[in-house]
Amino acid sequence: MIQINDVRQGNQWAEYLKKIGWSVAETSFGVKILYRKSIVGSLVKIQRTPPLSEDNLKEIEKICLEKKAAFIKIEPGIDQDEEILKKSGYVVSYFPMVPSATIFINLELSEEELWKNVSKSGKYSIHRAEREGARVEIYKNPDAEKFDIYYKILSETGKLKKFYVPPISQLKKMHEAFGDQGHLAIVYEKDGTPLGTKYYICNKDCALYVNGGTSGQGRGTKSGYLLLWKSILYLKAQGYKVFDLEGKDDSRFPNFTKDWEGFSYFKEKFGGEEVLMPYPHIKYFSPVIKTMVKLTGMGL
Q1: Each residue of 183-242: pLDDT tens digit?
Q2: Counting runs of H as helices and runs of E as strands, what totals does the chain give?
Q3: Using an 8 Å Cβ cutoff, are 97 and 45 in contact?
Q4: Is 163 part of a structural domain of the chain?
Q5: 263 and 188 part of one domain
């Protein structure tokens, strides 16, 4: 399985979370702990960690208790031994906060190998978009004008598809935190009209797809296929080794991913390695939350 330096354990991600109200602590072995104070204690989330040992978990717990943790929620990265979490008092959570399944594109493959992995219908759609005159431009650390184009299309898509779109102020804070490690791809009609956008953030050798959208005009074209294909080649040329397409449907969490079939099908056309992350795990410390969970039978 492809190993990654997940963006959510990177310095820029920590800086972004600070900008939107979270505090950050770090273990001696480099894992970042995100926490936010509340009336019942600090809410703690630790996401996409490297495999954790029992000793690692003891250090994490010590730090979190110093922050008066109400609970610790860990969403492990690849290869975590879930038995270690259970032995340390964690229970499975059925409410993931980040996508539990994804697709990794190996950017160390040659362009020919990457193209070979694209499905027949995906290749057709890319060629059709090129024949229709679509073109893709990708901007490192995009300026405000390009970012506004991206947000306008993203917002329109969110309303149509009924998914949550963060306020532009929040996404601009992400953009500020990532700087040159943020890349915005826009596909244009031959007359220069923007048809679709995708935004990527990166940590070390890993690129992460954040979100994107397609305009009303773009939905009648195959421009989205060209946009993603050109993005793959661009990110490869930038020296990244893994492209995380960030999310696909997951039968383990039907409510969380119930509306993801369409874009999952789209992503699958580009090949790549489908990855199921370990279950999220949580450990409760707040007596109030422990009582609530016991009475309702519902965890967090």
Answers
A1: 999 999 999 999 999 999 999 999 999 999 999 999 999 999 999 999 999 999 999 999
A2: 10, 13
A3: yes
A4: yes
A5: yes
